[in-house]
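Let us begin with a simple case.
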Amino acid sequence: MVLTRRIIPCLDLKDGRVVKGTNFVGLRDAGDPVELAGRYNEQGADEVVFLDITASKEKRGIIIDVIQRAADQLFLPLTVGGGLKSLDDIQQILRAGADKVSLNTSAVHDPSLLTRGAEAFGTQCMVCAIDVRRNTTPNEKAIPVSLPDGSTCWYEVVIYGGSKPTGIDAVAWAKEAEERGAGEILLTSMETDGTKNGFDIPITAAISDAVGIPVVASGGVGTLEHFYDGFKNGKADACLAASVFHYGEFTVKEVKEYLRGRGIPVRL
């Protein structure tokens, strides 16, 4: 059976509204999350991701309300991330109607949370989000990745919205996350995020080769070709995008029709 590739719109939430900026600054309001998600539902999106980018505890009530409204109205899987630090946090989000949770900073601080979450709710519910950036500092323990210009680097995991380096090798962390119970990797490269120059193909392909679970490519879509490149050369199982969908540059349907025309199996 040929596995279809997924197209996933991502909605960044702040105070219960969808916002879009560059590197989390210059945030602009992009609308009501449930209305936007409903539009993507009609366009044939395979999933929707909600990321609570402020993720402070006092906002949890708002995100719960948004999830409940979305779950009541949508007929597609919903992944929710941002500020989830405990099994109780995860349970709240799943009870509100989410199908999966995305853990990033909290998984780096406490990798056992992936294991405990997988044991409690199933690996299919646990997404490990990994934000990375290129690092050329010599590191004997890191796994080298070849770049298009012939040079090599290693990719470092960064946390707190890309603001804090960890010294952790991204390929090694992806493999550990899989071993600990993650059912999927959501990979965002700080090198390409917001650039509209395409996904970071070298690290997407390296992690796709290294793990046996689905990898979602994120960060940098600007053209239809970029989606194709993410699947063909990045070997991704899904491609995630935000602004090209929110501001109507493409519909999900247009992306899928383009991909099908180029031989990528998608669900239309």
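The second case is a distinct protein. As before, the sequence precedes its structure tokens.
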Amino acid sequence: MLGEINDDFDMLEKRFEQKYEVTEPKALGEGTYGKVYKAVSRESNQVVAIKRIKLNPDDDEGVPSTALREVAVLKDLDSEYVVKLFEVFCSPSKLVLVFELMENDLRKYMKQAGGKIPSHQVKSLCWQLVKGLEVCHACRIIHRDIKPQNLLIDANHRLKLADFGLARAFMVPVPKYTHEVVTVWYRAPEILLGSAGYSIAVDMWAVGCVFAEMATGRPMFQGDSEIDTIFKIFQKLGTPNDISWPGVQDLPNFKTAFPQWRHKGWANIRNTKEKVGESGIDLLEKFLAYAPKQRWSARKGLAHPYLADAGP
């Protein structure tokens, strides 16, 4: 058995090395299931990103579900606003995914800018993020893990959605999904409060969080746990009630004993208003609406006056 695995591994490496050369031994990044390296195509000289995922042949689960989801989703998505998957190499002990290379992610980009992204770039990057999600949602795909680390940026400030390991195709009506999605700082309040179901609106809440973070230079709801995050949200946007969010009191994790905070006002929330103006604040409120049914979709967001002149 071990000999067969080694043979398969050697064949994968040989096929891979015939087409690509890893140019830097140091990994560009590392995730839960593998490392990412820079490589170059021997045929076209195109520089690419290689994600190597080690597999355990003795594991009954085989290829991690996140990797399978990412491959399946990216095969269906063909958009300039979504990172491209060029090729897949697979053996019982290793999976290699070949992506287009993007020089940076939004988290590193914001750090390099010292948290001070010019207003026109905030608008442009927001438009590209919303456009990418419009493409996903039109294909009935929820990303479920929108955060700065999963938004890639190249030298020309082009933004693309990446890391579709938690993405899911959905149907109407939307079935119940797991709550273990979206990094807690960008997690929608309906998930934090235990809603039995959710939809594409969770992606749009995360867009609002990322939009505000680009404008202010810091995460908007930087909690160290689910309850701390929900309190961070309430402290800034006000504690919801059945008027601002019909049905909120019926959610499993909502407590009538929650502290009653009032909305701080965007002028008092890290000068957000100063960076994006009245129009940007209006769009931000549409994306950060408490009630999922009232939260704007990506398609509506693209038609908002703030983004009207931000497209290509």
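The longest strand covers residues 34-41. The domain at 16-100 is CATH 3.30.200.20 (Phosphorylase Kinase; domain 1).
Keep these points in mind for the review questions at the end of the chapter.
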